[in-house]
Specification:
Low-confidence stretches: none
Number of domains: 3
Radius of gyration: 29 Å
Order of helices and strands: EHHHHHEEEHHEEHHHEEHHHH
Mean pLDDT: 90
Bound molecules: iron/sulfur cluster
Number of helices: 14
Structural class: alpha/beta
Oligomer: single chain
Strand content: 5-15%
């Protein structure tokens, strides 16, 4: 399989959108944020490509303006104010960058560097290809190199984000595949946040790169499993707000069908059932909360007055005390081992293992899936949120 970091990221985010974009090659309109990111990236690329006759700041901004004017008519901005604000935001990112990081101070080895890194799965005998494009690769000195990825996000995450970042680890592997003589050199991995003129730098040891390979192999395995079953569930998350996928997504298609009147939806019965369901669920949730409050009140009263049972017109309640013994399990172990009961106590169950799985090293997760997974069980349930979203709210 040939796969890029962005495809892997898309799969993690939502298998359904992965299938549409990566497998079915559906062309989705660019979001305004992605458009701004591309325009700024291209202007920075222009700045460094002109080495050694670097352009002036005005020339860089003009380049950016040209891209903006040519392509912005295709982008869905909320209004003229939003369009103008985002445009100005791009100019200030470029201006800050130009002044703080003069391009002539860097030795740049590559811009928009394409790579292909082979990835062998020893278990299946398959060789996959990791591909991608790296924003910039610099040489700092004879022993140190730096891989840089520009980010135009509004928020700068914590250092931990860079330390665990899969994209940077893949780029490291890509650089080594493209320039094998850099193996053994110090390779810095940097996320450069253009909104803040700040960066997060990290590195990966060869052991960590090996773990990354295992993680990618298990992601590829998961993709292949979905392919075999032709099963691509939509996984909604706050990232759904990155709009263009919404229209093709089964999570939102009902609202679009209503808005655009494309289907003759006769769902009066379904609507009635839904209204009743939400009313009952809400009442149950409210009752549960109120029951807890009443319990606290009644128990307090009974404790104070030393009544173990309280009688009323509708019935009576009894104060029920249940003592739970909490043991030091390590100290309990020898006594239980002596009668061969320790193992029984530790018996694992499916629920426990499922909860535990994400915290295990990716190699162990893969091993469990390869060697112990019997089957996948699908259960259906309804998750309810009391939030009114109407077809008119869709963009
Ligand atoms: S809108 Fe959300 S759930 Fe639907 S395809 Fe996009 S990411 Fe997946």
């Amino acid at each position: 399989m040939r796969i890029s970091y962005s495809a892997l990221e898309l799969f993690e985010r939502c298998p359904y959108v992965f299938k549409c974009v990566v497998l079915d090659k559906l062309k989705l309109p660019k979001t305004k944020e992605a458009f701004l990111g591309t325009a700024v990236h291209e202007a920075l690329n222009f700045l460094f490509t002109k080495n050694p006759l670097f352009p002036t700041l005005d020339e860089v901004v003009n380049f950016y303006n040209k891209t903006w004017d040519e392509r912005s008519p295709k982008i869905a901005f909320k209004d003229a104010y939003e369009k103008e604000t985002l445009h100005a935001n791009g100019i200030s990112m470029l201006t800050r960058f130009y002044k703080k990081y003069p391009a002539w101070n860097f030795t740049t080895l590559g811009l928009e560097t394409r790579f292909e890194a082979p990835l062998q799965d020893l278990k299946t005998g398959e060789t996959h290809t990791l591909s991608g494009i790296i924003d910039r690769v610099d040489k700092i000195d004879d022993d140190t190199y730096e891989i840089i990825d520009y980010k135009t996000a509004r928020r700068m995450p914590a250092q931990e984000h860079a330390d665990k970042n899969l994209q940077l680890a893949i780029y490291h592997m890509g650089v080594l595949a493209r320039w094998p003589h850099l193996a053994g050199k110090k390779i810095k991995l940097t996320l450069h946040y253009l909104q803040h003129s700040e960066y997060l730098t990290t590195a990966r040891s060869s052991d960590e790169l090996e773990l990354t390979k295992q993680k990618i192999l298990s992601m590829i395995q998961a993709i292949q499993d979905h392919q075999k079953r032709d099963d691509w569930p939509a996984k909604s998350s706050p990232l759904c707000a990155l709009n263009p996928y919404n229209k093709i997504c089964p999570m939102w298609s009902y609202l679009y069908a209503k808005k655009e009147n494309t289907l003759s939806l006769d769902d009066t019965t379904a609507q009635k059932t839904l209204t009743e369901y939400i009313a009952l669920k809400t009442a149950t949730q409210e009752n549960t909360a109120r029951i807890k409050e009443l319990q606290v009140e009644l128990l307090g009263y009974m404790r104070d007055k030393k009544f173990e049972r309280l009688f009323g017109e509708e019935g009576y309640v009894t104060r029920n005390l249940r003592e739970q013994e909490i043991y030091d399990l390590e100290k309990a172990r020898p006594a239980l081992e002596a009668i061969q009961k320790w193992e029984e106590l530790l018996i694992a169950d499916h629920k426990k293992l499922e909860k535990f799985l994400p915290s295990l090293p990716s190699q162990t997760q893969k091993r469990l899936r390869d060697e112990a997974l019997l089957r996948k069980r699908t259960t259906e349930s309804l998750l309810m949120r009391r939030k009114k979203i109407k077809p008119e709210d869709l963009e």
